[in-house]
Amino acid sequence: MEEILYIVVPCYNEEEVLPETSRRLKEKLEALMAAGTISQESRVLFVNDGSKDRTWQLIEELHQSCPIFSGVDLSRNRGHQNALLAGLMTAKDRCDMAISMDADLQDDIDAVDAMVEQYYAGCDIVYGVRSSRKKDTFFKRFTAEGFYRLMNAMGAETVFNHADYRLMSKRALEGLAEFKEVNLFLRGIVPMIGYRTGTVEYERGERFAGESKYPLKKMLSFAMEGITSLSVKPIRFITGLGFLVFLVSILMLIYSIVRWAMGETILGWASLICSVWAIGGLILLSLGVIGEYIGKIYLESKERPRFLIREVLEDEHGKADR
Ligand code: UDP
Ligand code: MG
Fold first, then answer.
1. Ligand 1 atom 16: residue of nearest CA
2. 15 DSSP assignment
3. Residue 1 — pLDDT band, cuts 50, 70, 90?
4. C-alpha to C-alpha distance for 66 and 78, rounded to whole angstroms
């Protein structure tokens, strides 16, 4: 079995890391080819995400020097997720399996072997999962783990401690192509594809050169994007809040009637305080209800596939009929 593997690497201003990254990836692919695990047609596919430095020139030079390297140049910077998708969709028609990884080699490339092994064992998606965050600073660990907890609490189900280091089979990539949504949050969408999945644990290292393109600000907007593009839970939250405030208004009603009966109130206070709470609660509740419908429209407008078929059992007769 020699199937074609594409390694998809999004690159944004990565001139500092590309020479080393390309050398190591070439080594890895050649070792796998020599072992007869993957086809000679396997490639490293760099996606240039509108870099402002010499990244694309470097990719072109690599392509000239060795056919193992190929590249895709985006018209402008579209962000990590879109660059990754562009690469995966390009690879889809050319490969049997694709592995996505970052250009800075923070993800241990030796996990590739285990991923390919699991692919041959029948997995369509293999997630690379970080075994520990010992090397991270307390701050990074705290914010990153908080990120996963928040995401899951808000209804965006993601694989814990899995970034975008994963293997996907051609079939899984075709499934991914069925998701037409524009606000694409790959980590949330990929688990929706289904099929047999596996995980491979690895240690995540430091970025060996250059600096992170994901500062805290980008990470927060990434989390926000993830939540709002995957779930309508925040809307449900408003409905719940409205219901709660309305309940409070009933309590306030009872309380103010008691105070009024005891003759301790100024004229007009009881009715005023009740209407403030009741109206507030009703407004929030109605907003939530309207929001629910908007949420439905939102999800509909994504035109997600309702199913993907794993296998159809049919005999020769069934085939001939078609
Ligand atoms: N990246 C990209 N477009 C962007 C930002 C980042 O293609 O607008 C790429 C970047 O080149 C790298 C990957 O996304 O290959 C992850 O970025 P980085 O390593 O800076 O993130 P971190 O590991 O710090 O979270
Ligand atoms: Mg990185």
1. 102
2. T
3. low
4. 27
